[in-house]
Amino acid sequence: MRRSGFTLIEVMAAVMIATVAGMALLKISSQSTFLFTKIKETSSMSETLSIAGAHASKRFDKLSPSLYDLLDNTYTITNDEFRRYLKNQQYRYQEKVVDTIVFGGMFGGSEDDLYNESVADGSVPIIQFELIEVSLSNKDQQGAVVMARVF
Fold first, then answer.
1. Which residues contact 84 (CB under 8 A, 6 or more apart)?
2. Angle formed by the axes of helices 8-54 and 67-74, nearest 10°
3. Which of 1, 33, 49, 86 has the fewest beta carbons closer than 10 A?
4. Rounded to two decimals, what is the model's pTM?
């Protein structure tokens, strides 16, 4: 006499296969959520760094420690969501001069004259700027960007 149902071993094997497949899908889902969160944080930090870099100021670096203070003292922030975001994140702002570059005011001279701070004939440099590293950090994130600032 032959039965038409499944044996206990077959049912246990099917449950085991379904469990392994379910665990794999759960792991993929959690990794995707983690990666999307990291991408969102990185994107947010990049946007905030671009704001900080665009508004870098020599006077600010010595006056106040937070990005919120820099922007609040310079602009009237009308977007309440952005204001809350800056206050909650408490980004610490720092800037450091990486290099100063001076292009001489002498055209047609030697290539060395173009990069020297003082030109032999006494002409005044026409282009002078400094490269600054603007860095932001809070308890969870940190980032930096190098910007050029004209004197």
1. none
2. 50
3. 1
4. 0.52
Written in H, E and C, the secondary structure of 56-108 is: CCHHHHHHCCEHHHHHHHHCCCCCHHHHHHHHHHCCEEEEEEEEEEEECCCCC
72-91 confidence digits (pLDDT tens): 777 777 778 878 887 887 77
Please identify which residue in the block is written with the tokens 């905030």. 48
Q: Quick check: 145 and 50 in contact, CB under 8 A?
A: yes
Helix H or strand E encompassing 114: helix 111-115
Angle (CA) 129-132-136 rounded to 5° is: 155
Does residue 132 contact residue 93 with C-beta atoms inside 8 Å?
no
CA distance 126 to 109: 14
Amino acid at 108: G
Distance CA 90, CA 94 (A): 13
pLDDT in tens, 31-40: 999 999 888 8
The contacts of residue 8 (CB under 8 Å, 6+ apart) are: none
Q: Are 67 and 48 within 8 A, CB to CB?
A: yes
